[in-house]
Specification:
The structure holds 2 protein chains of 2 kinds. Helices cover about 30% and strands about 25% of the residues of chain A. Chain A is an alpha/beta fold. Chain A has a 6-stranded mixed β-sheet with strand order 6-7-8-3-9-10. In chain A, strands 2-1-4-5 form a 4-stranded antiparallel β-sheet, with helices on one face. Chain B is an alpha+beta fold. Chain B has 15 helices and 11 strands. In chain B, strands 1, 2, 3, 4, 5, 6, 7, 8, 9, 10 and 11 form an 11-stranded mixed β-sheet that branches. In chain B, helix 3 (about 25-40) packs across helix 13, helix 4 crosses helix 13 and helix 13 (about 330-370) packs antiparallel against helix 14. The chains are: A alpha/beta, B alpha+beta. Chains A and B meet through strand 5 and helix 2 of A and helix 2, helix 3, helix 12, helix 13 and helix 15 of B.
Chain lengths: ~230, ~425
């Protein structure tokens, strides 16, 4: 058995205040390599905190987080940044593409902090854009692309560093139903090709299309469907 | 699967070992910072403008003061600091305002005086010919001059010859440079003639410009002998020029008055023309400090402008900062990006300022007929000052950008 792509062990996140807010309450979750799963929950359930902690953008108050076997919850800024640059891919609801840069350069930015040469970054970016079906749009600027296309550029950027896990935060939140379906189809295809993808969403319809679903309520996790163990 | 893979500890060690640190290549920092500026061209240009104006002011002030100083010291060198002029002055006793005729001969016997010459301004007006009215003097004066005048003043002969002992006795005349121009005489080969007080004189020479004696450029010179024989005038010197041993200048200055006019030495006024230029030089440097101060204020304002623009950029580009952190940028990478952006901005402004300042200097020096001198210190200092300002102005915004928590930065506006 390999180590998990991502594993949270008894993780809590408490925001100080009176009373203190328990955004994550002793959460454990294990995501195997090659899984496609959804964390579903209403707003305020702690989904965003969950994403930030899993993405090493925020630190847990308690518990430990392993990414591809590396215990990251106590790492310093430089090592955490290295984990993000090499093991994690992010897809955001707002896409967060750089407006002045072409689709190709936006995807290549996924490798900017890995120290690889510009030529290599662009070559691998072109491969990923091809993979998400945008091989004909390499030199378009974000504002020349449709919403669905922009999100596919963002997905290509998340994949370009060959991450252990892709964390997608409401990836269809800003898209119409047709584009949403196209993006979800793309995630399924990538999953079949071997990628590990975790989707965070408040839409049960989106979650139900995925093989495994975990529900988040008031900072706690409940396995709904397809628990692996 | 092999047995070793199943124990967790070696896997973690192996995983950590495989993972290098986040790295941003130096060439990529430049690209990232340039992109940041390129996307806001107008704002980039406007915020660099403050630095441009400040640096241009400082470079131009230094360039212009150096150029004018070079011109002045050139003039001082030509003129020499060992030239004294002696003139009659009214004095308190209501003196006669004339210097004795034998003054030059007496001064010539003082050891440290190298050469001495006097001029006597004549009342007779020089004219191109005897048909013209005596009102049409074109601002020209006739002067009876000592044969040593050109040597004493370090003047030059542009064409023909200066007066000598022989031609001083004959009706011959030498024209100052402006006088020749106004009388429309460019050559002496065919023996042109002019009239002075109705008497004909043959032009035998034309002089070059006298350094700092434009009034002499407007004069025509005849010999003292000719002045006496033609006009029957007294030869009381109007001005005496004294060229002395530079080391003995003060001593000579002290004995001139009693030598020239033992009865009323206070009716003799002595001056040193190079003093005027040196005073001008000193006054120039006072202005230089003033303008340098103004340039420094402009630079300070420019620096504040850059800091302001960078602080706004950090706020506006929160999402970009968050994205870069998610893509693996360390805090140091973000700090470097914004610092390099500020440095690029200020060095852009600095380079433009240095060229503008040099251009202004070259243009103004060209108009004034000065040699263009742009001190290297102004160019290097200008660029260094711009970079220093960029670094200082960029530091705080860059630190703010780096300190921004990724979760905070990624929150949608």
């Amino acid at each position: 058995m390999r180590h998990a792509a991502l594993e949270l062990i008894d993780v809590s996140k408490v925001y100080p205040g009176s009373p203190p807010v328990h955004a994550l309450d002793h959460v454990s979750l294990r995501v195997e390599h090659g899984e496609l799963l959804a964390i579903v929950g209403p707003s305020g359930s702690g989904k965003s905190t969950m994403l930030h902690v899993m993405g090493t953008l925020d630190r847990p108050t308690e518990g430990s987080l392993h990414i591809d076997g590396i215990e990251v919850s106590r790492l310093g800024d430089r090592k955490l940044s290295a984990v993000r640059s090499q093991r994690i891919g992010f897809v955001f609801q707002q896409f967060f593409l750089l407006q002045g840069a072409s689709a190709l350069d936006n995807v290549a930015n996924g490798l900017l902090y890995s120290g690889t040469s510009k030529r290599t970054r662009r070559r691998r970016a072109a491969e990923q854009l091809d993979r998400v079906g945008l091989g004909h749009r390499l030199h378009h600027l974000p504002n020349e692309l449709s919403g669905g296309e922009r999100q596919r550029v963002a997905v290509a950027r998340a994949l370009v560093n060959d991450p252990s896990i892709v964390l997608a935060d409401e990836p269809t939140g800003n898209l119409d139903s047709r584009s949403s379906a196209a993006v979800m189809d793309l995630l399924h295809t990538l999953h079949q090709e071997g990628s590990t993808i975790l989707v965070i969403t408040h839409e049960h319809a989106i979650a139900e299309s995925l093989p495994r679903q975990v529900e988040m309520i008031d900072g706690r996790l409940v396995e709904l469907v397809g628990a692996s163990q | 699967m092999t047995a070793t893979v199943e124990t967790p500890a070696p896997i973690e060690a192996a995983s950590s070992a495989r993972m290098g640190p986040s790295r941003l290549r130096p060439s990529d920092i430049i690209t990232v910072a340039t992109d940041g500026l390129r996307q806001r061209k107008v704002r980039t240009a406007l915020s660099a403008l403050g630095i441009t104006i400040g640096i241009a002011a400082m470079v131009a002030v230094l360039g212009l003061s150096e150029s004018s100083r070079a011109d002045l010291s050139n003039q001082i060198e030509q003129l020499g600091t060992n030239l004294l002029t002696v003139e009659p002055s009214g004095g308190f006793g209501g003196g006669d305002g004339v210097l004795p005729e034998e003054s030059v001969a007496k001064l010539g016997r003082i050891g440290p005086i190298e050469v001495v010459a006097d001029i006597v301004t004549l009342d007779q007006a020089p004219l191109r010919n005897d048909i013209m009215s005596s009102n049409e003097t074109k601002g020209l004066t006739a002067i009876a001059a000592d044969v040593d005048l050109v040597a004493t003043l370090r003047g030059s002969v542009a064409s023909g010859a200066w007066l000598d002992e022989t031609t001083s006795q004959t009706p011959t005349v030498v024209l100052g440079s402006i006088a020749a121009e106004r009388l429309a005489i460019t050559s002496v080969t065919d023996g042109p003639m002019i009239t002075i007080g109705g008497q004909w004189f043959t032009v035998i020479g034309i002089l070059g410009d006298f350094p700092l004696a434009e009034n002499l450029d407007r004069a025509v010179f005849i010999g003292k002998g000719a002045a006496v024989s033609v006009f029957d005038v007294e030869l009381n010197p109007s001005v005496i020029y004294v060229r002395t041993d530079p080391d003995q200048l003060d001593a000579v200055r002290g004995v001139i008055s009693p030598t020239v006019d033992p009865q009323s030495p206070d009716e003799v006024s002595i001056s040193r023309p190079s003093d005027v230029l040196e005073a001008q030089e000193a006054a120039d440097s006072a202005f230089t400090s003033l303008f340098l101060g103004l340039g420094a204020v402009a630079l300070l304002v420019g620096g504040i402008g850059i800091a302001n623009v960078m602080v706004i950029a950090v706020i506006e580009r929160r999402n970009e900062i968050g994205l870069r952190r998610a893509l693996g940028a360390t805090r140091a990478h973000i700090r470097r990006q914004f610092l390099v952006e500020a440095l690029l901005l200020s060095s852009l402004g600095g380079a433009a300022g240095v060229s503008l300042g040099a251009g202004v200097t070259a243009f103004y020096a060209g108009v004034e007929g000065w040699e263009v001198v742009i001190p290297p210190i102004a160019i290097i200092g200008g660029l260094v000052a711009a970079l220093a300002i960029g670094a200082i102005a960029g530091l705080y915004p860059a630190m703010r950008a780096a300190r921004l928590a990724p979760t905070e930065a990624l929150r949608s506006a």
